[in-house]
């Protein structure tokens, strides 16, 4: 929800005044899908572990239970792949929306001929990139 993040832009009309701008974009859906699927996967894994260890005879005697377990596992695997791809796309969109050159280009004060605008430091995205690889 980048639109909730404000940043200050200097106003050339008054030296001490500044305007508050907001970033553009809402990329929360892919991240929420990724986290929700991770939580459900964890809960299913814990339930399956209890079933395997505590009720082993029920699991081995019933012919439909292992197949149902396999089908649920295949579904979770597919959704995990989709969620990882969605999170990767969401992260690249966040990077594009918060790129310093994009932010400077959107500031009207930096469009003048005499204006010299620079971003300062480049944001570190290493840990965010690693989250997609996992």
Automatic annotation (TrEMBL):
Membrane topology: Multi-pass membrane protein
Domain of life assignment: Eukaryota
Cross-referenced PROSITE patterns: MARVEL (PS51225)
MARVEL domain span: 1-134
Keyword set includes Transmembrane helix: yes
Subcellular location: Membrane
Main location: membrane
Sorted UniProt keywords: Glycoprotein, Membrane, Transmembrane, Transmembrane helix
PANTHER family named among the record's database cross-references: SYNAPTOPHYSIN (PTHR10306), SYNAPTOPHYSIN-LIKE PROTEIN 2 (PTHR10306:SF8)
Protein name: SYPL2 protein
Organism whose genome encodes this protein: Crypturellus undulatus
């Amino acid at each position: 929800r980048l639109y909730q993040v404000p940043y200050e832009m200097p106003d050339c009309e008054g030296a001490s005044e500044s305007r508050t701008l907001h970033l553009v974009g809402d990329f929360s859906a892919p991240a929420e899908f990724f986290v929700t699927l991770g939580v459900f996967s964890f809960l299913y894994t814990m339930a399956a572990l209890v079933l395997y260890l505590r009720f082993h005879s029920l699991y081995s005697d019933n012919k439909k239970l292992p197949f149902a377990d396999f089908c649920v596992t295949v579904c979770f695997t597919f959704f995990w792949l989709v969620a990882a791809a969605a999170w990767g796309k969401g992260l690249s969109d966040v990077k594009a929306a918060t790129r310093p050159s994009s932010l400077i280009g959107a500031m009207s004060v930096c469009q003048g001929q005499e204006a010299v605008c620079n971003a300062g430091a480049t944001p570190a995205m290493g840990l965010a990139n690693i989250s997609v690889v996992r």
